[in-house]
Amino acid sequence: MTKQDLLTYAAIMAGIVAIFQLFEYLIEKNIPWLFRLTRRSFRWLKRRLHLTRIPEGQRFILVNFSSHLIQPGQRRDMQKTLQWPAIEEVDARLGTVPEKQNFTRYLINHVEGIDLTANEWQTARLAVVPAGYAPAWSIILAELHGRLGYFPDIVRLRPAPEPAEEKFEVAEVVTLREIRSKARSKR
Fold first, then answer.
1. In sequence order, what DSSP letters do the residues of 134-150 get, joined into one string?
2. What angle do CA 56, 59, 60 make, to 5 degrees?
3. Which of 105, 115, 168, 169 is the most buried (most CB within 10 A)?
4. pTM given for the model
């Protein structure tokens, strides 16, 4: 064995040791990152597989609490973003909320007026377009959480660029359950 061969073997061994040390560092220092990546990948895969097997009679309901009608283009974007095969829209727009009455009772009655049975609240896939008035939306969200047992997905709309034919476009779907579970890990 020549001196050049020994140097080559030493360089290869040093490279292998460096790679193992790099993997060890990445795993030790980035376990939370790797865990989140794995969990997100699993959830994405689970959603994809779930959509291919839609249970018989499964309903996909979008409850609109905003003061705007859902336009056809927005509806298509929501269906694509939510990855739902179809959307049943329930119009629950608040309009003007009477400030001098019992505010909470009025909003709870408004949610009770939505034509869904207790079983439908529990079994349907549900997403909501929130009301723009924060105090009203807070009460409605608390009521929905109580009925569903979890936070619904929120469809966030934003003003569309100027040449668009609709005033608002779908910005994103906010999954409040994921936000809540991430926040619980910070306790």
1. HHHHHHHHHHHHHHHSS
2. 135
3. 168
4. 0.66
Q: Which of 176, 185, 102, 179 is nearest to 142 (CA)?
A: 176
Q: What are the residue boundaries of the structural domains of the chain, listed by start?
A: 3-47, 57-184
Q: What is the CATH number of domain 57-184?
A: 3.40.50
Tokens matching residue 140: 């409605």
Phi, psi at residue 156, to the nearest 5°? Answer: -95, 125
Q: What is the pLDDT of residues 40-67, one digit of tens each?
A: 777 667 656 655 455 566 789 999 998 8
Quick one: which H or E segment has residue 153? strand 153-159
β-bridge mates for residue 60, sequence order: 125
The full length of the chain comes to: 187
